[in-house]
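Page 37, continued from 36.
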């Protein structure tokens, strides 16, 4: 039996795609090798969102090249966004690669492996959903559901539209059937995935058309699904019906990830985000009004070309105003083929560093403060496994998506009550409330 080793980089969509790759490989009779050097098939599912992603991958590819020269019968495969963005150059620059494919061509890996082809092969069309392939889930009780692929936005800094193609939605009936299947297999929490989930459904045929809020209702209704999450929504498409769903649907979690990117309307316009600061803050106000305890998280880019000190201060103002439960902060990184990469006024490294330092301080202070509201409360925790820092304790997540480390007796997959005793910017700590029968 042949073995494979797969390394995954990037976002949750790539984690999803990797679970499908594993499912497909295992259906072909491959088994997973814990070590790269023990594998016949060395695979990478790559990301290219920022330059750092590329440099990290380079080291791994170097090792794959060495392993291949030690044993030329090994097969090296590279899938995902980096691969797609390098489709013209991958075989020239990385001659040890046998098969390269984009996010829309994962199924072609099977074709390659079962054919007698000896030459290097590249597959880069946008077709099909990885979500149609069999999955091997990392956790029995948590499932990803790919509701759409691609992105029709043109955010000027972003490489994703070129690596994942135009947006295509999967019909609701198919998605509900998939969630039902997962529930029957023991899944209790599903995360709906798309680059822009709340524009889901607009491209479906008449008769199949539905809104994202309607889809949420259908998924909530599936027996056995106790938690529903989704990522990422786009502020421009964040409508009242979706926010209301958080208040009305029992399984839809009290957490919304609402990527801000920048607090200045001028910068947002240059980013082609198609909302301004007022519209964004208006969405936040609606969330606070309808779902008062909702956690809000975000993504912020520091040092977009042309961002002035005063414009950065506007980002700081929005952060202070919204009071995020958590935020991912990124230094702007020019990406090949994107509009912003060619703009004048690239912000010097030192200015980015200074701005980032201040932003991270504010984000951490606010998330620590926000987390204190859980102290003394009893929270529903979905148990994920042992604590990463202390294996005698357990780890899980509350509906608001915060990680909790706690003492208790529960098993992974169970939902238990945990009394929260302490909170930091990133984690909560507490004790399981044992139910007396
Ligand atoms: N489709 C999702 C995720 C996009 S990628 C969305 O729109 O929310 C995740 C985050 O990476 C983005 O929200 C953005 O903050 C960041 N990002 C994307 N391109 C970047 C770049 N060129 N430089 C720095 N950060 C970037
Ligand atoms: Fe990139 Fe913008 Fe699409 Fe998100 S919405 S994937 S940031 S182009
Ligand atoms: Fe995800 Fe990276 Fe592609 S963030 S969509 S894997 S470029």
């Amino acid at each position: 039996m042949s073995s494979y080793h797969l390394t995954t980089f990037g976002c949750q969509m790539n984690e999803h795609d990797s679970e499908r790759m594993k499912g497909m490989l295992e259906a072909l009779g491959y088994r997973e090798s814990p070590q790269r050097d023990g594998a016949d098939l060395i695979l990478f599912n790559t990301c290219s969102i920022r330059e750092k992603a590329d440099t990290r991958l380079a080291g791994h590819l170097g090792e794959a090249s060495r392993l291949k020269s030690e044993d030329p019968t090994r097969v090296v495969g590279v899938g995902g966004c980096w691969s797609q963005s390098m489709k013209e150059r991958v075989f020239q620059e990385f001659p040890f690669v046998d098969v390269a494919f984009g996010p829309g061509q994962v199924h072609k890996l099977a074709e390659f492996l079962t054919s007698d082809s000896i030459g290097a092969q590249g597959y880069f069309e946008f077709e099909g959903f990885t979500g149609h392939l069999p999955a091997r889930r990392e956790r029995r009780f948590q499932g990803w559901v790919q509701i759409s692929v691609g992105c029709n936005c043109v955010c000027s800094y972003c490489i994703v539209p070129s690596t994942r193609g135009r947006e295509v939605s999967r019909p609701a009936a198919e998605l509900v059937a998939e969630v039902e299947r997962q529930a029957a297999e023991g899944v209790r929490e599903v995360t709906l995935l798309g680059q822009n989930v709340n524009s889901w459904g607009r491209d479906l045929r008449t008769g199949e058309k539905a809104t994202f809020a309607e889809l949420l209702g259908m998924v909530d209704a599936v027996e056995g699904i106790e938690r529903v999450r989704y990522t990422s929504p786009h502020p421009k498409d964040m409508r009242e019906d979706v926010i209301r769903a958080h208040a009305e649907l029992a399984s839809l979690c009290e957490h919304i990830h609402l990527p801000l990117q920048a607090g200045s309307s001028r910068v947002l316009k240059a980013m082609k985000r198609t909302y301004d600061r007022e519209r964004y803050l208006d969405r936040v106000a609606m969330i606070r009004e309808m779902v008062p305890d909702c956690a809000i998280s975000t993504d912020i880019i520091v040092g977009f070309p042309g961002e002035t000190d005063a414009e950065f201060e506007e980002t700081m103002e929005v952060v202070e105003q919204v009071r995020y439960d958590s935020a991912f902060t990124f230094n702007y990184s020019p990406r090949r083929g994107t509009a912003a990469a060619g703009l004048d006024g690239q912000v010097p490294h030192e200015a980015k560093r200074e701005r980032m330092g201040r932003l991270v301080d504010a984000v951490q202070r606010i998330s620590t403060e926000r987390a204190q509201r859980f102290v003394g409360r009893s929270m529903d925790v979905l148990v994920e496994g042992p604590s990463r820092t202390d294996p005698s304790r357990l780890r899980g997540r509350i509906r608001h998506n915060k990680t909790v480390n706690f003492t208790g007796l529960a098993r992974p997959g169970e939902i238990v009550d945990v009394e929260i005793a302490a909170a930091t910017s990133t984690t909560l700590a507490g004790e399981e409330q044992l139910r007396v029968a």
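The chain has three domains: 3-123, 135-298+333-341, 375-433. Flag for discussion at group meeting. The chain has a mean pLDDT of 96.
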